[in-house]
Amino acid sequence: MRSILDAGEDARLSGRKCRLLLHACCGPCCAGALPQLADAFEVTLFFHNPNILPKEEFIKRLDALKLLLTHFEGVGLIVPEQSEDEFLSAVRGMEDLPEGGDRCTVCFALRLSATAAYAAAHRDEFDAFATTLTVGPRKNAALINAVGEAAGRKYSVPYLASDFKKRDGYLTSVRLSKEYGIYRQHYCGCGLPGTR
Q1: What integer pLDDT is reported at residue 69 of this predicted model?
Q2: What separation in angstroms does the CA of 130 have from each of 84, 164, 182, 196?
Q3: Span of the secretion signal (predicted)?
């Protein structure tokens, strides 16, 4: 599995930035990831999160992400059509499971598969894809990377593994969110019984 650090070093040595489609789960996680990527990557965020419930919460998180991007020049944003029904259908029967269990794996796969599919459909625009999900201190980076790698194989698009919580990514997320007045949510996203 190729890491985002390896790809960044290759880009630095070649003098050409890697064009990265970065799945964005929220503004705070992007605040922890973007400073680590700025030098080696041309980043476009992909805000595909049908798991964020209710709709008002989805809008708050999207607005927070847009506010964050006013502090990062040259980062693109794609917000594809999505519906909470897509998520609810995928996790039917798992609604009462606690955060960190099988429902989360299905949720990661749903979002990263959509990101990989978009990157595959726009191969002339992106060299690889990754996710900001690994910034979260309670997120299993190894699991997320395995899910991302599987999505990359399915769509024949390179996935770049990361653990953005390392190298002070989570602390940077907290600091920049406070400094920029970025909304920090109190639950992962789905708002189902096991998550709050």
Answers
A1: 98
A2: 22, 11, 22, 27
A3: none
